[in-house]
Amino acid sequence: MSKFISVGKILNFHGIQGEAKVGFSKNQQDFFSSLKEVFVKENDDYFSLKIKNIRFHKTFAIVKFEGINSIEELLKYKGALLFVEEVTIRESLDEDEFLIDELVGLDVVDKDDNKLGFVVGVSNNGATDLLSVKTKSKNISLIPFVKAIVTTVSLKDKKVTINNIEGLLQ
Question: Rounded to whole angstroms, how far apart are CA atoms 106 and 98?
């Protein structure tokens, strides 16, 4: 069975021809524009919506789906999350890109392999991604996910190695 990952949300209709105003993750315009289909979850089933056309307006995508030609036909999808199969996302990841659920739970160690804590979440401050790390002292510290600080990520070894500069972790 395929695993699905959310990539956007139908926020509203756009115009009267059944186009959808879709919100999506910041800096993902190239990935979003490459999609040919997305899935909508109804009850426990996912069904496909084929994408006919995508254009971008401000921070939103305007999406025309095949077979949806009026506001009435689109309204049942208003508020629906849009998903893609996990394999679709994995194919578009660069070597140093990861899915958030792959990082959560990984141990955080220093260059000498001393355990400093573990990743409890990932966020973005507009400039960079941040790893939320729960330290041994039970504090949550935010670590910029940049090469100068996060030197390696090993999913196989289930750890993130960081350059533990003074004051980074509390």
Answer: 12
**What are the structure tokens assigned to 43, written together?**
């009850």
Tell me the HSE value of 136 on the side-chain side, using a 13 A CA sphere. Answer: 5
Name the nearest CA neighbour of 146 among 121, 170, 128.
128
pTM: 0.69
Q: Which of 93, 95, 164 is nearest to 135 (CA)?
A: 164
pLDDT tens for residues 57-100? 888 999 999 999 999 999 999 999 999 998 888 887 777 778 77
**Tokens 């990935």 -> residue:** 31
Q: Which CATH superfamily is domain 4-92 in?
A: RimM (2.40.30.60)
Indicate the CATH number for domain 100-162.
2.30.30.240
